[in-house]
Amino acid sequence: LARNPKLMQKVQDEIRERLGKNKERITEEDIGKVPYLDLVIKETFRLHPAVPLLLPRETMAHIKVQGYDIPPKRRILVNAWAIGRDPKLWTNPEEFNPERFVDSPVDYRGQHFEL
């Protein structure tokens, strides 16, 4: 947001308008009242995942992933950082654009690994 003052102003205005000017802390329960802030959070997590490499997984059986054969008992790391910047998944992936999540079912809580 520091690189895009217009977006920051939009978020600040929404918070002040919907939550009040004297709100000291925003809770998770408040997020539903500030939809643009919710979009900004999703976009922030897409570009800057809290954990760039997800916890390792171990295959239980032989699997094939994107054409690669992976035998059983192999550890696999999921690169969340790369997923968030994959041009096959995102239009202009390096651009900070919260509006990309308008009408999107992606949620930062749960198992939406796109973020």
UniProtKB/TrEMBL annotation:
<comment type="similarity">
    <text>Belongs to the cytochrome P450 family.</text>
</comment>
<protein>
    <submittedName>
        <fullName>Cytochrome P450 71B17</fullName>
    </submittedName>
</protein>
<dbReference type="GO" id="GO:0004497">
    <property type="term" value="F:monooxygenase activity"/>
</dbReference>
<dbReference type="GO" id="GO:0016705">
    <property type="term" value="F:oxidoreductase activity, acting on paired donors, with incorporation or reduction of molecular oxygen"/>
</dbReference>
<dbReference type="GO" id="GO:0005506">
    <property type="term" value="F:iron ion binding"/>
</dbReference>
<dbReference type="GO" id="GO:0020037">
    <property type="term" value="F:heme binding"/>
</dbReference>
<dbReference type="Pfam" id="PF00067">
    <property type="entry name" value="p450"/>
</dbReference>
<dbReference type="InterPro" id="IPR036396">
    <property type="entry name" value="Cyt_P450_sf"/>
</dbReference>
<dbReference type="InterPro" id="IPR001128">
    <property type="entry name" value="Cyt_P450"/>
</dbReference>
<dbReference type="InterPro" id="IPR002401">
    <property type="entry name" value="Cyt_P450_E_grp-I"/>
</dbReference>
